[in-house]
Design brief:
4% of the residues lie in helices and 33% in strands. The chain has 225 residues and is mainly β. The longest helix is centred in the first third of the chain and has 10 residues, at 4-13.
């Protein structure tokens, strides 16, 4: 059996385009009872599109800015409009929604991808980092048929049987909680805990296939108190 260090190395190399020295500081990631997700925050229906200005040159935005597709070769970075908001080394794109309070829910169709990350990141996160490798991003990832959480370069496996065609993301800003949701049941599969202090954006990393986002949704009834 491979050591935990080797397993982490495999996850970290997914989608890597350059060699970088990554932070080893950790931020807490934990399983939480579903009831902990119901803090005092207000509920909102977040509506967002994918922000092409942030998209790495290997990513194409389509379906009226709600979908993203990965191109293995991608565009020559020199042919992409220069933009300080664009991710330079990793296949990442942000949603254009800015979240600084409240409780929000959206979904992502993932059936056409086998390597991706979905979650949130600080609006001003460095465009030289990948979502999950910095202390300013929190994601649920899928690679090699396994789920995991990742923030500040720390990986925690997530127990999940199979891979659903669609997943939900539940964010409670004031409670500092981010949940991965199975919208079919519905239930919270896993939750991450942190303290969010600056505006967040929906964040996506993609290294094959495509993802489709679905926003402006109400939280599933089964997740409410």
């Amino acid at each position: 059996m491979a050591s935990s260090r080797n397993v982490a190395r495999v996850y970290l190399l997914v989608g890597r385009t350059v060699t970088r020295t990554l932070s080893t500081q950790h931020r807490q990631t934990t399983n939480l009872p579903a009831r902990r997700l119901f803090a005092t925050s207000t509920k909102n229906s977040l509506q967002f599109r994918l922000d092409e200005r942030t998209a790495h040159s290997s990513l194409d935005i389509f379906k009226k800015d709600t979908g993203v597709i990965y191109r293995m070769l991608g565009l020559d970075p020199s042919h992409v409009q220069t933009n300080p908001e664009r991710f330079r080394d990793w296949a990442v794109v942000f949603g254009d929604g800015k979240i600084s309070s409240g409780r929000h829910y959206w979904e992502v169709t993932v059936k056409k991808s086998q390597e991706f990350r979905v979650g949130v990141a600080e609006e001003l996160m460095s465009r030289d980092d990948c979502v999950g490798t910095s202390s300013s991003s929190w994601v649920f990832g899928y690679a090699q048929r396994k789920w995991f959480t990742m923030t500040n370069n720390k990986i925690v496996p997530v127990s999940l049987v199979g891979k659903p065609d669609r997943v939900g993301i539940l964010l409670d800003f004031e409670a500092g909680l981010l949940g991965l949701v199975d919208p079919e049941r519905p239930r919270i599969i896993h939750a991450m805990s942190s303290q969010f202090k600056t505006p967040l954006c929906p964040a996506f990393g993609l290294w094959d296939g495509e993802l489709i986002t679905h926003s402006g949704m109400d939280e599933p009834q089964g997740l409410k108190r």
